[in-house]
Amino acid sequence: MTFSSKLIEKAVEAFATLPGIGRKTALRLVLHLLKQEKAVTEQFSTALLNMRDGIRECQTCHNLADAEICHICADTRRDRTLVCVVESIRDLMAIEDTGQYRGLYHLLGGIISPIEGIGPSDLNIESLLARIQEGEIREVIMAISPTIEGETTVYYLAKKLQDLDVTLSAIARGVSFGGDLEYADELTLGRSIVARIPYNR
């Protein structure tokens, strides 16, 4: 792909670094921005810079937030006796989109994967245990993708929680084994949360 402008080429290269964006799509986006008013492009770039500078991690659940505590943890209408353990922000958003869950969350920041060199100490497990030990949480829902690594993570967490006074449950397997939560449809995922089952420790 040849360019008549080095500036366009650099902009295309920048867009092409994003996941799922090839050079042709990147070029289409760059040309689209060039057709817009300058104010639109400035608003776009300002929004990205503000996000990069202002976003932080919730001190309670590790969700992405604008302040020290995310809007979910700060919502007093939420059931504070329930905490749903998820792998990533995308899984949290998928569950929120179902409209079926009104408890709190805890983001692990990944799953145990020896092949990729990710162990329990690399995840947000100690902060989860600390939250449970405070005594307000009564049920922990494991909403982790049903893969081998996901099941290993659930098993590890179950062992860590076995001496704590909480009910442990897992989402119902309307989600197929080996699938990712973020790709499950809202109806299936919502029913899986509502029809969660006790997890045998």
Describe the model.
- It is built from eight helices and seven strands; from the N terminus they run αααββαβαβαβαβαβ.
- The model has no long low-confidence stretch (mean pLDDT 88).
- Helix 1 (6-16) crosses helix 2.
- It is elongated, with a radius of gyration of 21 Å.
- The protein folds into two domains: 6-54, RecR Domain 1 (Helicase, Ruva Protein, domain 3, Orthogonal Bundle); 64-198, Dna Topoisomerase Vi A Subunit, Chain: A, domain 2, CATH 3.40.1360.10.
- The longest helix is centred in the first third of the chain and has 17 residues, at 38-54.
- Helices cover 43% and strands 13% of the residues.
- The strands form two sheets. The chain has a five-stranded mixed sheet.
- It has 201 residues and is of the alpha/beta class.
- A hairpin with a 6-residue loop joins strand 1 (56-57) and strand 2 (64-65).
Kindly list the characteristics that best describe this protein.
201 residues; alpha/beta; Helicase, Ruva Protein, domain 3; Dna Topoisomerase Vi A Subunit, Chain: A, domain 2; 5-stranded mixed beta sheet; 8 helices; 7 strands
